[in-house]
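Exercise 7. Given the components listed, write out the predicted structure of the assembled complex. Treat all entries as one system.
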Amino acid sequence: MATTNRTGSESTARQRPTSPTARPSEAVAGQDRRVLAVALRAFRAMPGPLLGLIVVVVVLSFLSPYFFTQRNLTNIVSQNADIGIMAVGAALVILIGGIDLSVGSTLALSLMSSAWLFRQHGLPFTVCVVAGLVIGALVGLVNGVLSTYGRIQPFVATLATMSACAGLALYLTDGNPINGFPGWYLALTSNSVAGIPLQAIILVAVYLVAAFWLNFRPSGRALYAVGGNAEVARLSGLNVTRIKIAVYVFAGLLAALAGVIVGSRLDSAQPTAGTADLLNVIAVVVIGGASLSGGSGGMLNTFIGLLIIGVLNNGMSLLNVSPNLQPVVIGIAIIVAVLTDRGSRSRFLA
Amino acid sequence: MSRRDDTGLVCVGLVKSYSGVTVLKSVDFGVRPGTVVGLIGENGAGKSTLSSVITGVVRPDSGEMTLDGRHYAPSTPSEALREGVVLIHQEIRLLPDLSVAENIFLGRLPHRRGRVDRDQMRRDAEEVLSSLGVAIDPRRLVRGLSMAMQQEIEIAKALSRQPRYVVFDEPSASLGETETEHVLDRIRALRERGVGVVYISHRLDEVRTVSDEIVCLRDGARVADWSEAGVAKESLVNAMVGREFTYEHVPPKPSRDEVVLEVRGLGRRGAFADISFSVAAGEVLGIAGLVGAGRTEVVRAIAGVDRPDAGEVIVEGARLPTSGPRAAIRAGVVMVPEDRKGQGLNLDRSASANLTLPWERELATGGVVTQRLLRRVGDEQRARLDIRGDMSLPVQSMSGGNQQKVLIGKWLIKDPKVLIVDEPTRGVDVGAKMAIYEIIRTLAEQGMAVIVVSSELEEVLGLSHRVLVMSGGRQRGILSRFEATPQRVMELAVASDRPETPTLGSTTDSPTAATTAGR
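Answer.
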């Protein structure tokens, strides 16, 4: 996702920062060897994605003076809020060994439905937003039911709903965007609380809730069991079918939530919004170290994956790398992430 | 068999061990052209290993083989094939979406000018099928054919290679009586054509009727052979089990009177039928039988993993719902499955997380499962079952014995009423074996009703108050501890249905089998 072309009230990264930041290289100078050894050990113990993120941030800080500024960094987070929220759902689905190709189209359909209900039927906008979220959850329900009771492989089931939702989103308004929403809705993405953009706060909140659920709640922890070995989970008395369906419903709901943010940011409901985000969303999860065969991954790593994608895209824009080349770099990042992850895993098991 | 003459396939002093366990102990074996050698033995006696060595599936650690006097040391099955030695597997391994002819000639389809020569293939397939007396169109797909027909195709596939020696590894395991008779006819026909046949089977009657010579393996060694006709079945049985027990007999404490688990007429089509027994508090009931007898299928149905289609399970007077494992666990019926890696444990997760998996809802305080809770549960079970290893590391890092203890511990966190243990010591070293026996005894003494399923006869006999013996999906008898001699159990375990009883196994053909009473 290119960080340029974003409209909205925020300042773009192109604005020059006035205060020079401390250079990271100064800190290293004059340190003695033992500290270096300790640092090196900490470095090794670090999860691979975090290491990758640090490397990318350090390199970009040297390459561009605008990169390591507070404004630019918060921009990276808020500009990727929609992808980040969808990635939470995608990470959950991938964790249970499934895949959801329909996230982007679900975003488009739920956003268009909200706008259409507001414009065509004059319903209160709050009701429309809630209706959009419900539609997202319903798409997830269809995905879940098809891939469990229907015994259709999730790839195929969500491919079908992806196509159907994309079509419906266009059909609702005959392909036309809908503009003009209440002011409070636009404030969702233009306002800040204590200097932090509201959408960044929403994003982080979603990650925190999901992380808490996954690590501490029995129903969330069950996802690891289902993804690791569904038969073990079933024999342990878990209702595997219900868990799987619930995860797809969450993924649909989160895609709809991402749609709320996109609509607010653009002050416009575009029928093709989000449909290009699918690969970025999956890239975020994979760079975060999740395996598509299920059972591994977590919210912290997914968030780091999101930052890596965001930082790379942002950095390349700052460095005036051609937008056409940026996906190439993302592709390389995916391969590097998977290869290094495999290396660290085999070291751990040895 | 010594090297009396050079003709035939001769093995001398074969030794094979897997990770420290010797499964073949200097075995001599031979088969001459135009003869059938029956190979019998208990589960784990080394029959399959021997047939794997002969057919190049595994290489022996030491020992020599000669084929008609020439050195023979196949390192792959295809090398053995080139020498004319084929193995016909226990399980049928045909590709359902290919035609009969394609399956027969898989990997060596006849071709002409770079294209598969379908006419040639069909003619060749027809020829080999008709030589077997099988009437089937070689162009039809394998999918949907009966098990018996598929077995015939497996045989045709083997014969199309013009073998000089054929090893049948329990070809009748999934076949009924009349279909087995066909297979035996094929074997006789092969013998007529001068092929040397090794026939492995648990069904002693078949072995007796078809073999010219019978060899018995026990614990990886050749213990007996017979070359005269009309060997008494008893002497075969005695040779199979006639070993000293190597564990110390600790007689279990007597069980109490109150019945905890009652099974009435349980059946599942194609797997087992008419199973009825009860287990009292404090009692260990063993289920014995040879591989494929339906033991695991029965306990899976009791634990709610598979849905039975006849009969009922009653736990402390209440009928157990058949809606799934969850209902059974709620009612206090838990099962340690035989396949630890595939069904028991999540190897990538910590031992503690594996322990709590079924119980997190109950254990959570305020709906939250904390690290402290996991550590506490892990420490409790580690102390209780003497688990060696770090409970916070992936359970993969533990030895097989400790993994098994974790798996047992998982079901002890909320004291169950009925504990089912399927193959309690599979893949476990000797020390851990004894510890697991001790755990099972202690649990029974505390009043749990325990069911132990095991392929190791001495394990079942040593642990149980009573032993239920199965064969062919039927219950052949329940023996008390004092009646249950190895010979008596083995006699029941090799029992087969009389011809008038509908056979199980051939699932597609006999839907009535599951409801017909066994004897």
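Discussion: Residues 73-275 of chain A form one domain. Residues 96 and 223 of chain A are 6 Å apart (CA to CA).
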